[in-house]
Design brief:
By secondary structure, the protein is α+β, with helices and mostly antiparallel strands. The protein has twelve helices and six strands.
Length: about 350
C-alpha cells in the first residue's frame, strides 16, 4: 500500500520543526523481477518524480528554517502561510503522480506474474483445461469484503469468533450444514505458512506434500526474485504465498476457480471448499491470513460458515457469521474441487 498524501498543518505559532515535509510521498519501487523491457520505461517515468521529491524536501527544510520562529500575525507569518499552502499543493500533485506510477507498476507486476505462471504451467505439461482454469482464476482475483472497516472492528469480530468455542447450538446447526467439511492438516508454526495449511486442508493432502509442491512452483517460476527461487521454503516461511501462488497451487492439486463473497454459500453447497484471505486477529490490514471455509449453514435466521484456521489446530472448527466474514475478508475466495474420481489423502 502506497503512502497517501498527508496534508501539512501549520500550528498557530508555526512551530513546524521537522514536520514540514512529513507528507512527501515515497517513490514507488520497481521490482528487479520485472524484465528489463518492462522496467526501463517505468524507470524513465520514476526518475523525474524522484528528483521532484528531493526538491520538495529541500523546499520543506527551507520553510522550516525560515518560519519556525516567526511571530503570529506578522507579515512574515502571512508569507509563511502562503509558502506552506503552495508547498502542500506541490506535495498533493506529486502524491497523485506517485500513485499513478505505483498503479502502473502494480499492473505490470500482475501482468508479469500471470504470464510467468502460465508459462510455467505450459512447461510442466498441464492440459488445455488446466491452463484455461489457471489463467481465468489468476485474472479474476480482486479485492473483496467491506473496505471501510476499522482495525477495532476486525479485532472485535475475531474476539467474538474465538470466544464462541464449541457452542453446542451453533455446532448442531453446523452439523446439518452443506459443504465438504474436510479434516485438518495440522497447526501453523511461527512461520508465514498459513496458505500452505489452508491448501492442504482444502485439497485433503499432507502439509509436507503441499509445501513441496509450492516450493517446486516457486523454484521453477519466474515471478519471484533469485533469492526466493533458490530457497523457496524459506521464502514461504518468511513471506507466505501470494494470491496468485495459492491459485496455481490449488490447480496443481485439483480444479480451481475464484468466487466472490456473495457466491460463497452457493459454492460450498456445491461441495467445493473455499480458501479466503482475511485480516489476521491483530487487526493489521496490511497483513493477510489464509483460512478455509468448509461448510455453510443457517443459525438464528442468519447465514454462517464453518471455518478452519491453522492457528487454532486441525480439530477445532470456528463459526463465523456472513456479515462478520465480510468484515475480515480482503480478497475473493479461491474455490477448490478435487479432480473427478479422486479422494482426499489421509492426513496424519
Amino acid at each position: 500500500m502506497r503512502m497517501n498524501s498527508i496534508r501539512l498543518l501549520l500550528s498557530m505559532t508555526l512551530l513546524m520543526a521537522t514536520m514540514t515535509h512529513a507528507g512527501i510521498p515515497a517513490v514507488p519501487e520497481i521490482p528487479l523481477t520485472l524484465p528489463d523491457s518492462i522496467r526501463q520505461p517505468l524507470i524513465t517515468k520514476r526518475q523525474p518524480l524522484a528528483l521532484r521529491k528531493l526538491a520538495l524536501v529541500d523546499e520543506g527544510n527551507a520553510i522550516t528554517q525560515s518560519c519556525v520562529s516567526v511571530k503570529k500575525g506578522s507579515a512574515a507569518h502571512q508569507e509563511c502561510l502562503l509558502r506552506l499552502s503552495q508547498f502542500n499543493a506541490k506535495v498533493d500533485t506529486l502524491t497523485h503522480a506517485m500513485d499513478t506510477l505505483g498503479d502502473e507498476i502494480d499492473a505490470a507486476i500482475v501482468k508479469h506474474t500471470i504470464s510467468s505462471m502460465n508459462d510455467l504451467a505450459k512447461r510442466l505439461g498441464w492440459t488445455a483445461d488446466e491452463l484455461t482454469r489457471l489463467d481465468t482464476a489468476l485474472r479474476s482475483l480482486a479485492v473483496d469484503g467491506d473496505p471501510n472497516v476499522t482495525d477495532v472492528q476486525i479485532r472485535r469480530v475475531w474476539e467474538d469468533v474465538l470466544a464462541r468455542g464449541s457452542d453446542r447450538d451453533i455446532a448442531r446447526s453446523a452439523a446439518n450444514g452443506k459443504g465438504p467439511g474436510l479434516p485438518g492438516a495440522g497447526t501453523q508454526t511461527q512461520y508465514e505458512d498459513c496458505a500452505i495449511f489452508a491448501l492442504a486442508n482444502a485439497a485433503g493432502v499432507l502439509y509436507g506434500e503441499a509445501a513441496a509442491r509450492a516450493s517446486k512452483l516457486i523454484a521453477e517460476g519466474g515471478w519471484r526474485d533469485a533469492a526466493a527461487r533458490a530457497h523457496p521454503q524459506k521464502a514461504i516461511e518468511k513471506r507466505g504465498l501470494t494470491g496468485g501462488e495459492v491459485v496455481m497451487l490449488a490447480e496443481a492439486f485439483g480444479q480451481v476457480s475464484v468466487v466472490r463473497s456473495q457466491d460463497f454459500q452457493k459454492t460450498l453447497q456445491e461441495g467445493r471448499t473455499i480458501m479466503v484471505n482475511v485480516v489476521p486477529a491483530s487487526g493489521d490490514v496490511k497483513s493477510g491470513h489464509e483460512v478455509v471455509l468448509t461448510k455453510t449453514f443457517q443459525h438464528a435466521g442468519e447465514v454462517w460458515f464453518e471455518m478452519m484456521d491453522s492457528n487454532q489446530g486441525p480439530l477445532r472448527r470456528l463459526y463465523v457469521r456472513s456479515r462478520e466474514l465480510n468484515t475480515l475478508l480482503q480478497e475473493n475466495g479461491v474455490a477448490f474441487r478435487r479432480d473427478p474420481g479422486t479422494t482426499p489423502g489421509l492426513l496424519r
